[in-house]
Design a protein that fits this description.
2-enoyl-CoA Hydratase, Chain A, domain 1, three-stranded mixed sheet, 7 strands, delta(3)-delta(2)-enoyl-CoA isomerase activity, Enoyl-CoA_hydra/iso, multifunctional enzyme, isomerase
């Protein structure tokens, strides 16, 4: 939603300006990272406010480490947010994917560029063109996530942020 995008942008800018902040952790709520955009918004008149692509670029360009704590699902734009992060920690039961293709859309926030950089072109093409969701264990093998945990994902992401 626009509210989530605006909160991400505001939080990132606030963290960047605060010298006491050493790292940023991005997580979802209620056991889910993000299922991506609400497709009903695609047919609405031109929106004003934050857009996903620039927010993901803002995350990626942060001088402070940004760690994603992925629980539940990171799909579509949600995965693109995680791809912009410098590090990704996922719960062992998490699933990731870019399912937009199943409704005739391509990822719109540069996921088609960031995903191949992390996992290589063949694996990225498979995910992008099929829309399949992969489990955290496969994401770790591919290099999509840096760590998987069975415990509290946000605490693990904070530990990783403190380490880096």
């Amino acid at each position: 939603s626009l509210a989530v995008l605006q909160a991400l942008e505001d939080g990132l800018k606030k963290a960047a300006a605060d010298p006491s902040v050493k790292a940023v952790m991005i997580c979802g709520e209620n056991g889910k990272f993000s299922a991506g955009a609400d497709i009903r918004g695609f047919s609405s008149p031109k929106r004003h406010g934050a857009a996903l692509g620039p927010i993901v670029s803002l995350i990626e360009s942060s001088e402070k480490p940004v760690v994603a704590a992925i629980e539940g699902v990171a799909l579509g734009g949600g995965l693109e947010v995680a791809l912009g992060c410098h590090y990704r920690v996922a719960h062992v039961k998490a699933r990731m994917g870019l399912p937009e293709v199943t409704i005739g859309l391509l990822p719109g926030a540069e996921g088609t560029q960031r995903l191949p950089r992390l996992i290589g072109v063949p694996a990225a093409l498979d995910m992008i063109t099929t829309g399949k969701h992969i489990p955290a264990t496969e994401a770790l093998k591919l290099g999509l996530v840096d760590e998987i945990v069975e415990e509290n994902t946000t605490e693990a992401a904070i530990r990783l942020a403190n380490k880096v």
